[in-house]
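Case study 2.
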Amino acid sequence: MEARSEAELPRGAGWQFEPKWDGFRCLARRADGKVDLLGRSGKNLSRYFPDVVANLSKLKARRFVLDGELVIPVDRALSFEALQMRLHPAASRVNKLAAEHPARLIAFDALEIGGRELRGETLAVRRRALEQFFGAVPAEAGLLLSPKTTRRATASAWLRRAGSGALDGVVAKRLDQPYLAGERAMIKVKCLRTADCVVGGFRFAGASRTVGSLLLGLYDEDGKLDHVGFVSSFPESARPDLKRRMMGLRGGTGFTGAAPGGPSRWSTERSGQWEPVKPRLVVEVQYDQVTGDRFRHGTRFVRWRPDKRPAECTFYQLHQEAAPSRLMADLERARK
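Prediction:
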């Protein structure tokens, strides 16, 4: 079952709210003595998370299908970067990473338990079955039960913590609804933030030679400008002026620290095709998540900031939001 994005949490009765954890969505299936972890795309993730497979294989329950999120706690927060590192072709590397930072499965729904088919049951019934299932799950199993609430105020408090080391937002589901696989039957809401960034370069949009995206930077503690992401959400009517701005600054120093095209898991062949500019323009952008000191997704243009000096645009803006969420720690304590 998938989710559609909305700007705010739904109001009224009949909703259940759950934290949207910062991990890999996963169906954990055990049948005929075998455990499989299936990603949202249908890809089998079992080989990348042998620690989770081993833990689920030890459970007394011989048959189940759980819907949940694969997460990796690191330093009291959830590390999406650690999850990405698990997707490695070498089993030896995966096993080493699993030993250093074991993964967890946070379950929030059940499709089948003990041979009992639950897809056609309401969420309220499925949740009760899931809670009963957890009554027999030992604390050391690495399996956690996601909290839920029917109070919008509690969900709003969770939403304010989103992007702070564990949560990616909040999900809302109808209590009277069956499990609708493949349908966008849930609502997801993210807490969007803004940051002021320096324009350190740009990319042309193909052969048209219009400006396709601006490359964003923030200054580190040593005063170097590091590449942190891009913004491309400009209307066509604004692109001629955008090109004039970039041409006037073209050929500057650009990024003096981490630059586009440097070694990273985000690099592509196109990453090296960019034009540096003098770091004089400041732009305010909206973002949802940060991974490894970079915006995980493309950002949205908000406005130019001619009133702000580029030197003021530092990583402090991102780091002040990164206090670990208490929710994950509460979950771990509840299982002990």
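The helical segments are 50-57, 80-86, 91-100, 123-134, 152-161, 239-249, 316-319, 326-334.
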